[in-house]
Write a structure and sequence with these properties.
Order of helices and strands: EEEHEEHEHEE
Helix content: 10-25%
Number of strands: 8
CATH topology: D-tyrosyl-trna(Tyr) Deacylase, Chain: A
Structural class: alpha/beta
Radius of gyration: 15 Å
Distance between the termini: 13 Å
Length: 150
């Protein structure tokens, strides 16, 4: 699993020019799923996301987690995180999971994040044509891959 995590002061998803979901302070998480992903990858990544200390404390140091701050998550599936650009100029998405594999893991990730946070999270719609807008705070953008674990 791969995630691009952005600290935001606001983020929203629009579908067909209509607001679908939005958050204020928190994290926009773009999530990519591949066939090699398991529940172990999901649980590890969910824990990382909610416990990342990327919010400023009273001294302006990134020392506060999403849980500590009681902020929100907007989770959006994004198969293009597994794009391969090794050959040619047209990305290949062969490593990205097909919906029949990815949708159940996406739903499990939603449930796990909600369990860890103790509240509902905002989401997009898997496979929909979505317009995402955000204000990246910092900017702070972090990539996490459950297979690399850096």
């Amino acid at each position: 699993m791969r995630a691009i995590i952005q600290r935001v002061t606001q983020a929203k998803v629009q579908i067909d020019n209509k607001l679908f979901s939005e958050i204020r302070n928190g994290l926009l998480v773009l999530l990519g799923i591949e066939d090699a992903d398991s529940d172990e990858d999901l649980y590890w990544l969910a824990q990382k996301i909610v416990n990342l200390r990327v919010f400023n404390d009273e001294n302006g140091v990134m020392n506060i987690s999403l849980i500590d701050a009681n902020f929100d998550i907007l989770l959006v599936s994004q198969f293009t995180l597994f794009a391969s650009t090794k050959k040619g100029n047209r990305p290949s998405y062969i490593k990205a999971s097909r919906p029949e594999f990815a949708i159940p893991l996406y739903k499990k990730m939603i449930a796990k994040l909600e369990e860890l946070l103790g509240k509902k999270i905002a989401t997009g719609i898997f496979g929909a044509d979505m317009q995402i807008s955000l204000t990246n705070n910092g900017p702070v953008t972090i990539m996490i891959d459950s297979k690399i674990k850096e």
